[in-house]
Design a protein that fits this description.
Residues 237-333 form the PKD domain. With 800 residues, this protein is mainly beta. The protein contains 1 helix and 61 strands. The strands form 15 sheets. Strands 54-55-56-57-58-59-60-61 form an 8-stranded antiparallel beta barrel.
Length: 800
């Protein structure tokens, strides 16, 4: 351990007291004095030091002086000759007149050094010799100030500050130029922060300094001159903070705020600049480029570099950067659709969003319908949403997709039911008439909904007169009625009585008769199924004869034997017929006819020619002669009735002329008919035997594939020999065990006769066939009264 001499210890303490001047709170009494801190003097070079002149190459010479005004109390200077010759090769250093100087001869060159390490050792630097001096003065001092100069020296002067042997820092400077052999005049400032760490373990701690050195290398001209070396509080550049990072939207002002801190209270000027980076193509405008707090507006999306430059007028301007990110601007959307609408097509009221920039809208819906379905899809003008709860979403796509973003907004929408009104029109008809086509008005249906109305009633064809409801039934093939409330106004069907007319038949009776048969027919445009007719009789003066009599209608006919109350005088009387329906389904009607009362009835009725034989297909004439009791013809117009019964049945009526009535008869079937003539209650009868016509012509008849009821008709007749069968099956008739007995054929037609059994009863039948090789007709008539009517068939008919 090195011993410290008392004199040296005193010098260190004095140096520390000098250093303590930098601390305003370090006073004798320990009290605080608000005095301006004094710099720490490293060396003011007021203590001279003999010149060291070295002319031997490769040698080094050094000396030390002590003084309490020197930091650490000791200064060591040295000169190391690095030249190669002794001729004109002096290299010297020294301290005089308050400054350090150095110089050389023409061939002299070398290294000069000044040490402050707190001891007089001139050979070895003690990096901790100063004992840990705080050159910052507790953080107040932040640099060195040296008054220095140079003549021709071309190399820099290096200042090294040590904390220990492995922690030190260096800084270099070029002394200002001065004339040779002159004192230094200009101050060089070396901020502590400008030193570079050079120690093996790092840089020096300026609050714990163990040694300071100044070194240089001189090769040309005079060396450096240094007069005052001390600590100094630097005028430092301001601290600049550009803030950020910032972000905003295109074409929208973005607030920016920088901060500048200058401890020297210099007048600071600031400027904002911008630069587009990363391929950004926009430009920016700073509202007030000289203000710390301002706004910047940029025209393009991307990244920008903002630079805040601050100048204190002393130091070089200081800059700070901040990033500015400009994002797409979100356009402003204005959209205030109703929250509830009635079921129907969407329109501009619901889909009328607007934007602050050019672009287009699309719409979408999501919701739950009244019947529980989850639905979604695009929406447009005319879209119809079912009743339910929805969310409408508007998506805006700007035309400028570089600088503006798409925007999506949603709104609630409740769709409530619309109202359908059905008004059914009233209608009327007469009894037993078909119902008319009902009509009505359907309003409120949304276009596109296939909802229609059909109208029905409970009234049937036979429903009595009265009023019946007409009700609508809505047809909804697409299930659209879930979207409606339906109101109905039913109609009324009024059934009135069917209009009728009555035809009363004229009648004739003799003056000796006390009753007469009266007839009337009631007709309408529908069948008259009920009602009654009341007959009465009046004479020419309107006096009632007999008692009015009522008879029920049957098949539209009313027939009654009317009692006259006694014989009537010859002449004419009025028959009155009044129809009425107690059920009121038919309207009443009235009619009249004439009753002719003749003298006493005929004495004889003769049927001529009497019993007759004829062939089916022939016409015969029957003449009925009517004579009164005197053998004279009865009055003209006397009614004669001829009734035919047997295989052919009919009833004919004629009136007499000169006592005779003529009738024409023609048979359908062969067989025997009884003909009865009646006039005035006197009758006469005869028979007509109708022969089956013999087969004639040659015929081959085949009815094939006919529509039912005919199953098959086959007949053949060759040279008078008929054969074949007829098959007919229908609900109203089943022809069985048929046998053809005669075929009468002509070109294009034929009559087929035969016998058959129907329900176990024998009958005769007749088939009339017309046609050619293709289309034709068939008609079947049976002696029991059945008539198929003319039926068109596909046939093959060969007749000759």
């Amino acid at each position: 351990m090195r011993r410290v001499r008392p004199a040296m210890l005193i010098r260190w303490m004095l140096a520390l007291l000098v250093a303590g001047a930098a601390f305003p709170w370090l006073t004798a009494g320990g009290s605080t004095v608000a005095a301006e801190p004094q710099p720490i003097i490293i060396d003011d070079f007021s203590t001279p030091q003999a010149e060291i002149a070295n002319f031997q190459p490769g040698t080094r010479a050094a000396s030390a002086v002590t003084d309490e005004g020197i930091l650490g109390g000791v200064r060591v200077i040295s000169a190391e000759h690095t030249g190669t010759t002794t001729v004109n090769s002096f290299f010297w250093v020294g301290v005089k007149d308050g400054y350090y100087y150095s110089s050389r001869q023409t061939n002299g060159q070398g290294n000069g050094a000044i040490w402050w390490h707190g001891n007089t050792n001139t050979n070895t630097l003690d990096p901790t010799g100063l004992g840990g001096v705080d050159l910052t003065g507790g953080g107040y001092w932040d640099g060195f100030a040296l008054v220095a100069g140079r003549n021709v020296l071309l190399y820099e002067v290096v200042v090294t500050v040590y904390t220990d042997g492995t922690h030190y820092s260096t800084a270099s400077f070029m002394p200002p130029f001065i004339p040779s052999s002159s004192e230094p005049q200009e101050t060089v400032r070396l901020p502590f922060a400008g030193f570079t760490a050079a120690g093996a373990d790092g840089g020096a701690d300026f609050s714990n300094v163990g040694a300071i050195t100044i070194t240089f290398f001189a090769t040309v001209g005079y060396g450096p001159a240094i007069s005052l070396f001390k600590t100094e509080r630097m005028n430092v550049p301001p601290n600049v903070n550009a803030g950020g990072p910032y972000s905003g939207s295109v074409l929208q002002p973005v607030s920016i705020a920088g901060q500048v801190d200058d401890r020297d209270d210099d007048t600071i000027t600031t400027t904002w600049d911008w630069e587009a980076v990363g391929g950004t193509s926009g430009t920016c405008i700073v509202a007030n480029a000289s203000a710390l707090t301002t706004t910047v507006t940029c025209t393009g999306v991307g990244t920008y570099r903002l630079t805040l430059t601050a100048s204190d007028g002393v130091n070089s301007p200081v800059t700070a950067e901040a990033s500015l990110t400009i994002n797409q601007e979100s356009p402003t959307i204005t959209w205030n659709p109703p929250t509830s609408i009635t079921y129907g097509p969407l329109g501009a009221t619901e889909l009328g969003a607007t934007a602050s920039v050019a672009g287009s809208f699309s719409y979408h819906y999501d919701g739950v319908t009244v019947d529980g379905r989850t639905v979604s899809g695009p929406a447009g003008i005319g879209t119809v949403l079912d009743v339910g709860t929805y969310t409408l979403t508007a998506t805006f796509t700007p035309d400028d997709t570089t600088n503006y973003s798409s925007v999506e907004q949603s709104r609630p929408l409740q769709v409530t039911p619309a109202t359908i009104s059905v008004h059914v029109n009233n209608a009327s008809r007469e009894y037993y008439h078909p119902n008319p086509t009902f009509s009505g008005t359907l309003t409120g249906v949304v276009p596109g909904d296939a909802i229609t109305a059909e109208y029905t009633t409970t009234a049937t064809l036979a429903s009595p007169i009265g009023q019946y409801p007409i009700t609508p039934t809505l047809s909804d093939p697409d299930d659209r009625l879930i979207n409606y409330n339906v109101t109905v106004s039913n109609g009324r069907l009024i059934i009135t009585a069917a209009q009728t007319s009555i035809t009363v038949e004229d009648s004739v009776m003799t003056s000796t008769a006390t009753s007469v048969e009266l007839r009337a027919t009631v007709t309408s445009d529908v069948p008259v199924l009920a009602g009654q007719v009341t007959f009465s009789l009046t004479d020419g003066a309107g006096n009632e004869i007999g008692t009015p009599s009522t008879v029920q209608l049957s098949g539209g006919q009313a027939v009654i034997t009317f009692a006259t109350g006694g014989p009537l005088s010859t002449g004419t009387y009025t028959i009155h017929g009044i129809y009425d329906d107690p059920a009121r389904n038919y309207a009443g009607s009235e009619g009249q006819a004439t009753l002719t009362v003749n003298a006493a009835g005929p004495a004889t009725v003769t049927l001529m020619p009497g019993n007759t034989v004829a062939t089916v297909g022939d016409r015969i004439t029957e003449t009925v002669e009517v004579l009164d009791a005197g053998g004279r013809p009865v009055a003209d117009g006397s009614v004669v009735t001829l009734k035919v019964s047997g295989v052919n049945t009919t009833t004919l009526t004629a009136t007499t002329v000169n006592g005779r009535a003529t009738f024409e008869l023609e048979a359908v079937f062969p067989g025997v008919d009884t003909v009865t003539a009646e006039a005035g209650g006197v009758t006469a009868s005869a028979t007509v035997t109708w022969r089956e016509p013999p087969s004639a012509g040659a015929a081959l008849i085949l009815v094939i594939n006919p529509p039912r009821p005919f199953a098959l008709v086959t007949a053949i007749s060759l040279w008078g020999h008929p054969s074949g069968t007829v098959h007919y099956q229908a609900p109203d008739l089943k022809l069985q065990s048929s046998k053809i007995t005669s075929v009468v054929a002509t070109k294009g037609s034929a009559m087929i006769f035969g016998t058959a059994t129907i329900a176990g009863q024998p009958v005769v039948f007749r088939v009339d066939v017309t046609g050619g090789l293709r289309d034709g007709t068939v008609r079947l008539r049976v002696s029991n009264g059945f008539d198929s009517g003319v039926v068109r068939v596909k046939i093959t008919l060969q007749l000759s």
